[in-house]
């Protein structure tokens, strides 16, 4: 009888060490009151609206990400907030019994996203709700175009692969969550410089952590990137960038 074939490991798209470093940098930068935090503010408002619409009043919540505390602040009951990168998302979570798990851009750079969603379901109490928000497909089109202009004929992998609505719904079903819903909303932000756009991404922990990313931009490539960015400016000298916020929601079935 042939030996069973062990399950294959998920592809290592993201570098865990780079991801941890980026998240630690985000936590440090968020100590500055001037740091960008508009994505987390939007997420806090959206979370409050969703649980209000669903009439779900969690007594005990787990919040992953959320370095500003904005999401935790809108939740009733006891909140277990994990803003720092010390939580192994792609391994079984040593937690359970939560009425709500809110992942705030915490799953964007997990190599085993299907596995992380299964762990999230296991962390929920029966009848508990998962709300996981990621940067969805269609985010950062300006930055993508600028990086292509900077790299010229040899484009390098610089931005993360992103999940779209259809794939998100399939991931929820695969994780065994009931009543799975994937939806996306757009948020536009105007920037006066490429440097400010990159700074805002660093503030919010959304810079590149690919395992096989491109080499750092040299001065000539950076100059091309800044020129391409300036070429997209409107009459006010600003460029409008788009963030697409993809939210995956589903329930753990009652016992």
UniProtKB/TrEMBL annotation:
It comes from the Bacteria. InterPro entries: Malonyl-ACP_OMT (IPR050602), SAM-dependent_MTases_sf (IPR029063). Keywords: Methyltransferase, Transferase. GO terms for molecular function: methyltransferase activity. One of its GO terms (biological process) is methylation. This is Methyltransferase. It comes from Novosphingobium piscinae.
